[in-house]
Design a protein that fits this description.
Helix content: under 10%
Strand content: over 45%
Radius of gyration: 14 Å
Structural class: mainly beta
Order of helices and strands: EEEEEEEEEEE
Largest sheet: 7 strands, mixed
Shape: elongated
Number of helices: 0
Number of strands: 11
Mean pLDDT: 97
Low-confidence stretches: none
């Protein structure tokens, strides 16, 4: 069994910064792409940032130049550094990872439980 555990959410003022972390644990053979998604009330879940096992990164225009995704493969952990936060960044942020648990098993999409980020004065 694999678990993704997120941390680092909270309340921050506009213009402030937060750093989210997500650690994968359990039966892990390989981790492929990792990413962060968010879902605001009444809206669909959307991609915030993604990073491949080789380190290639992808961001939507809404967060480009403000958010940075990074991963530590030795720790099975992905991070999201969020700077210049805006009220419209308020959402529940979810960690996602594509993980192969055993050498011959299929790749499975795992999700964290979500962490609330609120940007408000």
């Amino acid at each position: 069994q694999v678990q993704l555990v997120e941390s680092g959410g909270g309340l921050v003022q506009p213009g402030g910064s937060l750093r989210l972390s997500c650690a994968a644990s359990g039966s892990i053979f390989s981790i492929y792409a990792m990413g962060w998604y968010r879902q605001a009330p009444g809206k669909q879940r959307e991609l915030v940032a993604a990073i491949t096992s080789g380190g290639s990164r992808n961001y939507p225009d809404s967060v480009k130049d403000r958010f940075t995704i990074a991963r530590d493969n030795a720790k099975n952990t992905v991070y999201l550094q969020m700077n210049s936060l805006k009220p419209e960044d308020t959402a529940v942020y979810y960690c996602n990872a594509e993980i192969r648990g055993e050498p011959r098993s299929s790749i499975v999409d795992y999700w964290g439980q979500g962490t609330q980020v609120t940007v408000s004065s």
